[in-house]
Amino acid sequence: MKFHSVLFSALVGCAALLSGAVQAQATRPAATTGKFAQVSPVTIPTAPAGRTPAEQAQPGQVQPGQVQPGQVQPVAPGTLPAPRLPRLTLNPAIQEVQKIEYLGNGHIEVAGAVLTLMPGDYARARALAGYVARRVLAAREQLDEVDISVYDKGSYAGFGGPLPLLTASVPRDRLDDFLEWSAGKGSYERAWISTMPGAAPTRVPDRVRELTVNFLGNLADKAADAVHHTTAKVLGGVQGGLLYHGSARSALSALTFDDAPHPMYEPLVLDILRRENVHATFFVIGRNARAYPYFVKDMVDQGHEVGNHTYHHVRLPPLPIADAVQELMTASQVIQGITGKPVRYFRPPGGDYTPATLRAAESLGLTTVFWTDDPGDFQNPGVRVLIERYTRTLRRGGIVLLHDNAPEMLQVLPTLLRLAQAHRIELDTVSELVGQPEAGKPGGDRPVIVSANLTRRTVRPSPRLVPVEVTLP
Ligand SMILES: [Zn+2]
Prior knowledge:
The protein is of the alpha/beta class. The protein has two domains: about 5-40 and about 90-195, Diaminopimelate Epimerase, Chain A, domain 1 (Roll); about 215-455, Glycoside hydrolase/deacetylase (TIM Barrel). It is about 30% helix and about 20% strand. The protein binds zinc ion (ZN). Zinc ion (ZN) binds near residues 210, 259, 313 and 349. Zinc ion (ZN) binds near residues 209, 210, 309 and 313.
């Protein structure tokens, strides 16, 4: 087998998290030093040869259902624990602050702050959000943005539980605007206030991520689906409401992100895509799109496409068909309400579908989209394994599946984008892959609209970015 080397930039901050090297510094009080934390150069772990992802799982792996409050949802069996993210401690502390995590992508740094309030204090949510944003940005001068999520204290169950009461994205250069809004003056478009404070979700999200396509049904369904399924797989393109891949004659491959948007990862992922001038399709969870609409707006403003990943992130096959339709319909309504565009594509949570869910999606104008390349970023297999898996299945006309809130995805994303370039594969949206560009977007030369939260700030190079030599198969 021939080997070649690729020189790429890896994010030392993220990689150090994997080794735990940065954690001691991350938990120190946030009195600023004016510099990024000094961390050791990244060491890429070697993948055990010839072992399956399941075999690579180590003792201590996350068990199904074992989800900590605030942990990104959802978690599949066989998944290694995600690295603990660095936390910021405010001094003096603010009692409503549950946690403040932060993460960098080698160019910008973003913090996610979770606050909780008792029902009698809901009226303080805006003022408190302003105060916390100011304190967080003052405590760590490297931060380019802080994203605030205020929850009801009694019902807070992490990301995926009851909706927050208030959310806001506060880039450093918009702090004054946000403070004015939090004081009850002016307007601020990167904030959201719930009209149903403390409302519990009507359905519990399935803690599963997308790894394999799973057709579920009776024997007759399976026999009928075999033809349908095989036709879609062999021919490619949209076949009877299914999309497995595009044309291998095309130079395009679709780049897709599931489980978006997330308050902290989203600005980091969008920043990398903007720098690399790559467009993608984000399959968003309707509930999260509702609570963080400005991130969905950012996606559209940067030329990305927004697809449907159900409202609560639930597998549709176990649901009565009316409920499955409701999940799809509510998510599409939320998305269209933000983007102003009809939703065209659906990615089934867990990859699970039946003829009935396929028909339900079709009845709402949705094509069910699968994938050809899933490196399993949510399993935290290590960056070398991720790159190897990705490289093995990357192909023209393919569909790459990543998850937008997987730490290792963020760490290797620039490398994955450059590897596609090296293989002369242009990554783009699903619409572009199937030759049906969205209205107003002729394929190939769409203008890149820079996100509003990054246009007024000069981004400095980060000392966390160091070149690393990696040997790829
Ligand atoms: Zn998902």
